[in-house]
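Lab notebook, bench 4. We co-purified these components, and the gel suggests they stay together. Before we commit to crystallization screens, I want a quick structural picture of the whole thing.
Request: model the full complex, all chains together.
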Amino acid sequence: MSLTSAATLATLDKTGPRRITDLAVAEGVTQPAMTVLVRTLEESGLVERKKDPSDKRVTLVCLTEAGASYVRTRRQAGVDAYARLIDELTGDEVEALAAALPALLRLAELESRARQESGR
Amino acid sequence: MSLTSAATLATLDKTGPRRITDLAVAEGVTQPAMTVLVRTLEESGLVERKKDPSDKRVTLVCLTEAGASYVRTRRQAGVDAYARLIDELTGDEVEALAAALPALLRLAELESRARQESGR
DNA sequence: AGTCTTATATAAGACCTTTATGCATCTGCG
DNA sequence: CGCAGATGCATAAAGGTCTTATATAAGACT
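Here is the predicted assembly.
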């Protein structure tokens, strides 16, 4: 599974159904690339297309139950992997990490904002 | 410039000349992929091949002056970008980050070790 | 010398991306 | 109302980077 595919599924999970162009912008790829990517996800049964009744041009991409389950499984695997790593740190180190979490979150948000402003 | 190319240049800068197979393992790609990648870097003038006199099968890949300069420029750009972001944090947040740095370094090292053990 | 292993190169194909383009639908203005 | 331009998506062609399979050359060991 490509990085972009995984990120797209995560985005759908976070924000609900989106149109193709939206997803392309969100993941920083072109619209044709997202069209192809959505097709492969659809063929894998992880998403489905729905027509927007208010604008017949747009197709809304929705997570299927299988897709949502895939995202949860993947996320849990990541959480577990990091939990195992953090288990090997000392108590002081874990405390320092916990204390830095708000700053790290802010930094991540600033970085994603900066990346959007500068083109990708 | 591909992610793998940049990582390869950084590795060469950190550890000095390396053989193709070494680089492939270090970057987690196959040897033919690294052969092609080194050729493009060579054509760009960023690295050069040298023959190992003690084993005529191996070709040692070395950073050229242009390659070293490229790595430095790229690194400085990254440092500057993060400096700008950190400038927007509060004093407390910066302190928390600084206090967490040793733990983050340990975590990164554990993670890279885990990744090597598990295949990539 | 003969055989196995190691280091690199080459070739063919898969996958993901981009630009260019086409078609359908919507929107706004005369 | 009707048509011109804008918008949303799909398709096609081409490029880049990767993989597997295979070839070639050199070292190592009996």
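Residues 19-21, 31-32, 34-36, 39, 55, 57-59 of chain B lie near DNA strand C (CB under 10 Å from a C1'). Worth comparing against the SEC data before the next meeting. Strands of chain B lie at 18-19, 47-51, 59-63.
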